Amino acid sequence: MRVAVLQFPGSNCDNDCLVALRSFPDVTAELVWHQETSAEGFDVIILPGGFSYGDYLRCGAIARFSPIMKAVQQAADQGKLILGICNGFQILCEAGFLPGTLIRNRKLLFRCESVILRVEENATPFTNKCTPGQLLRLPIAHGEGCYTADEKTLKELEEHHQILFRYCDDQGELTTAANPNGSMENIAGICNRQRNIIGLMPHPERACEALLGGIDGRFIFQSMLDWKVKSEE
Amino acid sequence: MPSSTITPDLIAEHGLTPDEYQKILSILGREPSLEELGVFSVMWSEHCSYKNSRPELRKFPTTGEKVLVKAGEENAGVIDVGDGWAVCFKIESHNHPSAIEPFQGAATGVGGIIRDIFTMGARPAFLLDSLRFGTIEGDSVQARTNRRLLAGVTAGISHYGNCIGVPTIGGEIYFDASYNGNPLVNVFCLGTLRHEQIARGAAKGVGNPVFYVGAETGRDGLAGAAFASRELTEESKADRPAVQVGDPFREKLLLEACLELLASGCVAGIQDMGAAGLTCSTCETASRGGTGVEIDLDLVPKRAADLTPYEILLSESQERMLVIVNEGQEAPVKKIFEKWELPYALIGRVTDDGMMRVRKGKDVVVEIPARALADDAPLYSREAAPWTAPAPLDLTSLPCADVQSTLLLLLAHPSIASKHWVWRQYDYMVQNSTVVPPGSDAAVFYLREADKFLAATSDCNAIYCSLDPKEGAKAAVAEAARNLACSGATSIGLTDNLNFGNPHKPESFYQLRAAVEGISEGCLAFDIPVTGGNVSLYNESQHSSIDPTPTVAVVGLIDDRAHITTSYFKEAGDVIFLLGNLGDELGGSHYLLVSQGRKEGLPPRIDFEHEKKINNQLLTLIRADLVRSAHDCSEGGLAVTISESCFKKSKDAPLLGASISLGKTGLRPDVALFNESSGRIIFSTPAAKADHVEKILSDSGNPFHRLGVVTEAPELSIEADGVKYEWNTRTLHHTWSTALPHMMQVG
């Protein structure tokens, strides 16, 4: 599997993604500079975390105009997998690939910590290695991760099973205390209706190594790998 | 040369003494221009020249076989960590700006130290923050101000560090009334590099082009170095324009561009524009290179067209670098600047006449021998007041506080309580290398490319230093080395941040001198070099001088990932040992502060021979796979140390308990539980190995006590001299973990 990790000015989890991806056999991962206009030859595009363009104006608001976003559109149309993590999720929302928006955390403070996610759907390229209701422990690190959408959008997300992850406590309950940023319906990650584009605030690439405290992020990357293998069969 | 009338008032306004002005006249052989006066003013400020502290700083041991770049040689020292890899690290203060404008003051403190590190050719790996604030409890105006400062400083560090993508993985915070109105913000950065990547801040090669790259110059931070070399007063708010505004996004681009630039081999010298901006960077590079530098201010990228030469020279606008490029290699350099969308300009050349010459078009506005400016700053050996040791504590006049409730008071004291509220605002995980996050004795970072584990800690108990500056400074080094040992690391280098009051006050100057001697003694004892650091004097507010705060940050190496050790008990049934003596020193203790509101007595005495023995003993046990947890015993004594070891590492790990017996101590219970004698470590070992460990310790001759066991029941019981004290660790943990957030929610 060939993975492009996009590099916007201000991306800072780009190398973390490379390191995590390269720990999987049969994966080649490369950085692709935001001025490029093509991502030909890649099976997966990752929009990594960070502060693209300093998050000026709004998170992701400037990055959406980068030349490389045309290539993202093309890949999306071809049904290739696109994964936005943290700032990448914000960019995908700003660019209209995913519905809703991410606003400042409920308490207005940046939060960096480990959270628990409940897997809501496993019939997706990103979660097929998980069981429904499985709990994943992943780190978050963001100041603007409060998922917000109008009622109609939320309803549609539900109806089309697009909500993939929600923040929960260690019993899997969707409590307010377990919601680190005030996201509506405890939403941590969603996909588009075609199920090839996903955005999530937590960082799976930071949970791929026991040394660093957890390996639950591997479920997401492994799901993508397996999906790719299966889709070629 | 445009002439201006230099009046005595103008000289005084520039913080220069009549004697210093005479020295300027003799260097130039004529009256300086206004611009030249400004240049001398900032270059000869304490912040840039260390004129009051340099004779003292020379006492530091700075050599060692692993030292690749020595203290004072460049922007930061460099230490060999083996296999062709090196670390470059330094701590620097941003106290004065943070007092006036906490968010930007702290943010630009982070930006400044990160620039110092990548200027050396190193990729910034992680940050530590050593912070001091006034008291934050209660509803007084002062407490509210201090809370605003804490919130602002935390947000500023979070803003800059998180955005630029350098994790903040540790540090420490203390609260004390002596910092009312004058908080301390000391930021440490460590970078990693290959030996051959070490970059120099020297203007080499006559004729080489001098490039300016980074943010445009504006009026922000005008003469900030001079501002930082004065006492803070009511009028200091008017100095707000002396505080710079940071742009971490720009710095991220600058960082990547500079590292790419240095890797290209086109760079002859590089220097960041920090304190004293363009002035300092031009004259220091020329001075180091033994050359001259000539620049034209008309070519400098500017934010406002009407900036005067004086303003351009003294601006401390952030995120700017001076790059000296090998002649003929301008094209690839420009391409890199353009890739990273950075403003740049060719502003001058390296010359052979040793002068720092600044033109504005055809007019020469500054012409000063660079070496005289950088190296011939006046040096002062200030008067040090003779010091008298404080009276030892008289226990007979000291009532014994209720042990039961005092432990809770100690755990709720903001200096001891959990700092989670602060550090969860920092991205401590970015770069995917944080093995031990904030909260344990030292942070541990994985240098992936070299497969090496680095540990780092910063320490200073300023109460000790206020009572006995030398012993307090020794304690800071001892604690740092012990923290590293508890993490499984051997210390390899130290950087210091000397925060003191006005050096013209003999008692402040004595404190500075004694602290340097204390740190030096510690470094010699542990055989660790001082690799550089920072001096911040004039830390005074309307109220008084701060407690002397010679903060040290020490870096260590862990040989093997299996030796990484944290402070938390791991499993019920594990046996708990105290390595060291029970101790009996209450002087300067937090117990005394919390229960009596007193900062008195003699602080703990430091015996470096003992410190070394127990650190080495612990490391031997760790390397033999006999240690599950290790925690240094410091503020709050044994009771606080053991409580903290019961606390969980993460929010869903179970809370453990401990059953402890101190046996016959012959001490008062408050002394037994809360004394802060140095050289003590609480560690745990698997039950099956406990007898073996006990035998090793008995044979070693090192003092130790087998104290008890870790329990599954979340209860802490400590028996001393037949009396048993009991607490629920849930209560202890709740008290400890909620104290700071509760205080910060008020007002």
Features:
heterodimer; A: 233 residues; alpha/beta; Rossmann fold; 9-stranded mixed β-sheet; two-stranded antiparallel sheet; 11 strands; globular; B: 747 residues; alpha+beta; Phosphoribosyl-aminoimidazole Synthetase, Chain A, domain 2; 60s Ribosomal Protein L30, Chain: A; 3 domains; 7-stranded mixed β-sheet; 25 helices
CATH topology heading of the largest domain in chain B: Phosphoribosyl-aminoimidazole Synthetase, Chain A, domain 2
Overall pLDDT of chain A: 95
Q: Biggest sheet of chain A: strands side by side, in what order?
A: 2-1-3-4-11-10-9-6-7
Strand content bin of chain B: 15-25%
- CATH homologous superfamily label of chain A: Class I glutamine amidotransferase (GATase) domain
Q: Helices and strands of chain B: which structural class?
A: alpha+beta
CATH architecture grouping of the largest domain in chain B: Alpha-Beta Complex
Give the number of domains of chain A.
1
What does this structure look like?
With 233 residues, chain A is of the alpha/beta class. Chain A has a single domain, classed as Class I glutamine amidotransferase (GATase) domain (Rossmann fold, 3-Layer(aba) Sandwich). Helices cover 22% and strands 25% of the residues of chain A. Chain A contains five helices and eleven strands. In chain A, the strands form two sheets. Chain A has a nine-stranded mixed β-sheet with strand order 2-1-3-4-11-10-9-6-7, sandwiched between helices. Chain A has a two-stranded antiparallel ribbon with strand order 5-8. The mean pLDDT of chain A is 95. Chain B is built from 25 helices and 26 strands. In chain B, a hairpin with a 2-residue loop joins strand 12 and strand 13. The longest helix of chain B is centred in the N-terminal third of the chain and has 24 residues. Chain B starts with 7 loop residues before the first helix and ends with a helix. The mean pLDDT of chain B is 92. Chains A and B meet through helix 1 and strand 6 of A and helix 8 and helix 10 of B.
